[in-house]
Amino acid sequence: MKVHISISLYQIIDVDEPAQNIKLNVWMIQKWKDEYLNWDPKEYGMINSTIIPYKYLWIPDTYLYNSVKMSRDETERYMNIQVESSYWKGQAGSQLSFLYPAIYTITCRLNIRFFPYDRQNCTLTISSWTNSMSALDYYADAEVNLASFIPNEEWDVKSFKIFRHEYKYACCSEPWAILQASLVIQRKPLYYIVNLIIPTSIITMVSITGFFTPASTDDDRTEKINLGKWGVGIHRAHCPLHYEN
């Protein structure tokens, strides 16, 4: 069975550098054809499409592999499924469209070596949890829909593309269809330039100048050294995480 997935990004809720994860508000759409779900519209008042609660239908076991939260109740809100009969197309079965909102927190290796000019690449890995490609074959749009995206004050979205791969795991003889949605974001440095880099640079220059003052001006020198200490404290407070190689 082929399952087509579309993703719309609404919001970047949080980028947590110390915890190495990112929180996204998205809208998921899964579409597939169920050959065993049939009815003749002529026998049901010419009704060709309907909406059915998801719990009464079979749905693909699609999972976000690198989600921080394992419970679906905490990340996805399942509701109803739109079902359209293929009777008038001369085909058996029905086309199903499953739309639902989700708030995903995914693991992401965040490197802030070039903070506040850093660019991050985070990937959502999506596939079936129990079915190989012979049972569920996943496809997706080439790019995530950003039409309804709410701009983030700290991050710019540079690209959000989806790639399809086939992986063969040691546990199974058949390959699995894996979708990887690659989100590339870049930090907006203006806030940190105004509130961190410029003030810290000024304090540092004043502190360095203090070391060249005459030995008799101990009070002025101590004051400038204290300013340097405050500058280091400000840097530690604003920088989200010290880079470790």
From TrEMBL:
Chain segments annotated as transmembrane: 190-212
Membrane topology according to the record: Multi-pass membrane protein
GO function terms (MF aspect): extracellular ligand-gated monoatomic ion channel activity; transmembrane signaling receptor activity
InterPro entries the UniProt entry points to: Neur_chan_lig-bd, Neur_chan_lig-bd_sf, Neur_channel, Neuro-gated_channel_TM_sf, Neuro_actylchol_rec, Neurotransmitter_ion_chnl_CS
Localisation per UniProt entry: Cell membrane
Keywords linked to the UniProt accession: Glycoprotein, Ion channel, Ion transport, Ligand-gated ion channel, Membrane, Signal, Transmembrane, Transmembrane helix, Transport
Pfam family, one: Neur_chan_LBD
GO cellular component: plasma membrane
Domain of life, source organism: Eukaryota
SUPFAM superfamilies membership: Neurotransmitter-gated ion-channel transmembrane pore (SSF90112), Nicotinic receptor ligand binding domain-like (SSF63712)
Entry protein name: Neurotransmitter-gated ion-channel ligand-binding domain-containing protein
UniProt organism field: Heligmosomoides polygyrus
Taxonomic lineage: Eukaryota, Metazoa, Ecdysozoa, Nematoda, Chromadorea
